[in-house]
Amino acid sequence: MDQVWIGTSWKMNKGPAEAIASAQALEGFVPPQGIQPFVIPPFTSLKDVCTVLEDSALMVGAQNMHWEDSGSWTGEVSPEMIRGCGASMVEIGHSERRQHFGETDWTVNLKVHAALRHGLRPLICIGDTLNEYEFGVSHETLARQTKIALHGVARKDLANVLIAYEPVWAIGASGRPADAGFVSDVHTRLRRVVQDLAGAEGARIPLLYGGSVSQDNIRSYVGLADVDGVFIGRAAWKATDFMALIDSVRDLVSDKIAA
Length: 259
Ligand SMILES: O=C(COP(=O)(O)O)[C@@H](O)CO
Prior knowledge:
The chain is of the alpha/beta class.
């Protein structure tokens, strides 16, 4: 592993003024060696945040995207529009979009192809529901979501793909953080899935964990061998908290990179 990814999505929070202020607070941040930080603001601030963070160490992404280049898709945003704002990443298939906005494994696949076609790095979110977890079929669900998301993707493009395992039951104020042992098991199995799909290229896809990550538990996830980063919500919305979370795993990351 050559780097650890630590990012936050601001979800539907921060209007333009607050988003710019948060970006300005992050602008001069120098992350510890081996950590690639990223922020994912709402669309209304995407261009402004990209401008503020243009020469910074942070990457910027969008929270969603349509798969077509343009057309009569009222309310949607195309890959070119996102590129035009200056973003280099795009979050695809977050469970909140699957749950509330009809996102399916198949639309995730279309969006992954579109992102790669347009030079955007897709951050593919996969996750098991509480029912799936309790019935013991999490691994089947995650393998299915991963295989469909990556279906037809050329091996050379896999170097630009990120996957975040985010149990639906772990996300948000009512979620409970996943046990590190369970995350380790999931990631080890996911590693096998991507390796079976795409050999050495698949084996290098960064696998992040997300869901109620906080200052109390971040080290338990980042310390795991098959966890290549974390994707954080609430606990990282304040810029100072985000930077503190990153700083708190400095030693773990340098050990990981050296290993
Ligand atoms: O949803 C996510 C995690 O949210 P938490 O508030 O940390 O539970 C993840 O996608 C980052 O936005």
